[in-house]
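ok so for the tutorial part 2 we go from a plain amino acid sequence to predicted structure tokens. step 1 is just haveing the sequence, like this:
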Amino acid sequence: MLHISQNVSLKQYNTFGIEVFAKHFIEINSRDELTELFSIPEWKTIKTLVLGGGSNMLFINNFDGLVIKINMKGITTTINGNAVLVEAGAGEVWNDLVNYCVEHGYFGIENLSLIPGSVGASPIQNIGAYGVEIKDTFHTCLAYELETGLFKTFTKEDCKFGYRESVFKNELKGNYIIVSVVFKLFLQPNFNLKYGAIEEELAKRGILNPTLKDISQVVSYIRVSKLPDPTTIGNAGSFFKNPIIEATLFEKLKLAFPGIVSYPAGTGDVKLAAGWLIEQCGFKGMVVGNTGTWKNQALVLVNHGGATGEEVFSFSSQIIDTVFAKFGVTLQREVNIIV
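step 2 — the prediction. this is what the tokens look like for a chain of 339 residues:
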């Protein structure tokens, strides 16, 4: 029997540690429970919010609707030659899946080690790090359509992946709940070591022929050295997207700021390092009231204790305005703002 709680604190369910309350709250452990929930007319019309790991959201206010915590677990594999299809329940912790694949010798998502959040959220955000994005290994996902009560399989093309974007964040936002994701991984390595400090750290360790475990451990080490642990200090990881600009604007910026950090973005565009832009504006390690930026990475906004969502949002707006005034580049928030 379904159990729906009332007036539930969401502080433990969002990595920012923002104290807000959900009017209604339920934990879903199976597809049958999801179907049962929306067979009740009351819950088909109310405003809903789906929670996975709560690692990529900022609550501004209490949520006057139904919060659905997805807990569906399970990992299964199908091997066909060099390819491995790995299906994981939406409620699986993302890094648990990465560790599972590393332990079993399945190549493809090792660069995404230690990213917080759940498997179900990964295609919504098209999570990525160190030159790899979910779209690179995504095969399909199964999602529940709220309006019809039917389950639908989405292909990579259906998902319309972009930089930290997907169809689930845009035209289909709020229409589906992802219940499982299938990734296409491989039994033979095809490492991507060109981004961040992966090659440098491998060289420091004297590793010339890295294994799958080596890559995962190095990526994890680099992340820990730069990013705060959400269990110690509230944060949602990278708060802003790395802006993508036209090559002509980049050339002008490079003349004015020779040290500007950039990466190729395809189709002649250039991706800038948002953290570098923010740091150049003097925000790195800044404390403003109960919020601020992380001392080791200006791209990360933190909750020093007792911060409200409005306080964090206001500070992020200050950063956006300052970066635009200095560089003429508009930062976009990567974190989902829940109002």
